[in-house]
Amino acid sequence: VAGGRHLYRKEPPVRPRGTLANALSLWDGVLYKNIGFEVLSAILLATIIMITKKFSVKRGSHGLGLFTNIALKKGDLVIEYTGEKISTAVADSRGGQYLFELNDKWTIDGRGRENEARYINHSCSPNCYPEIDENEKHIFIYAKKMIGPGEELTYNYGKEFWETYINPKQCRCTKCLGANKKELAKLLQ
Question: Could you tell me which residue ranges the SET domain spans (predicted)?
């Protein structure tokens, strides 16, 4: 607003759709409607969050999957696998598919929805790998290779998970589905 007058004479310009375009449209509304500083600050924060959101959860190769919205380089820290730290005995009694063993004594139960890493699916040809820190308190997921925006994040769940969950049903990762592109397309619909 310059001198108490709106910058637009009639209506704000129409912008194309998309995350950045949506953010710019918010700014157009702010300028057009002469909204106050507090609202402007809130809109700015929402815009930054909207533009910088690192991941999206959407339908992947095995149900819901975690997809990156940004490019990742080989060796980049992607995300931490978080959750309740419980004893392995408690984990064995609870059961569940979101248990990640730190060592023989401790396990992370990552079933809470705030743990976005729980949506990373298994692959026999993964683009990420997990690593447990030296104090055995944290599980970090790293990029195994270059990963482009829009790609699903995957890592190999390991032998025990394979024997318990995957082998009886057969693996359905893109590597194991191989040439069966129709089945893969059906899974991703």
Answer: 53-158
Does residue 113 share a domain with residue 26?
no
In terms of domains, do 48 and 104 share one?
no
69 token code pair: 């919205």
The tokens for 93 are: 């009694």
Structural domain boundaries, residue 41? 1-52
Q: Are residues 165 and 101 in the same domain?
A: yes
Are residues 39 and 124 part of one domain? no
Give the number of other CB atoms < 10 A from CB of residue 154: 26
pTM above 0.70, yes or no: no
Q: What are phi and psi of 3, to 5 degrees?
A: 60, 30
Q: What is the torsional sign of CA 170, 172, 174, 177?
A: positive
Residue ranges of the alpha helices (H) in 56-122?
88-94
- What is the spatial distance between Cα 177 and Cα 189, in angstroms, rounded to a whole number? 16
Give the closest residue to 145 by CA, choosing from 122, 128, 157. 128
Place of tokens 């309740």: 84
Same domain as 109, residue 19: no
pLDDT in tens, 25-71: 555 555 545 555 566 666 666 555 555 678 888 887 678 999 998 89
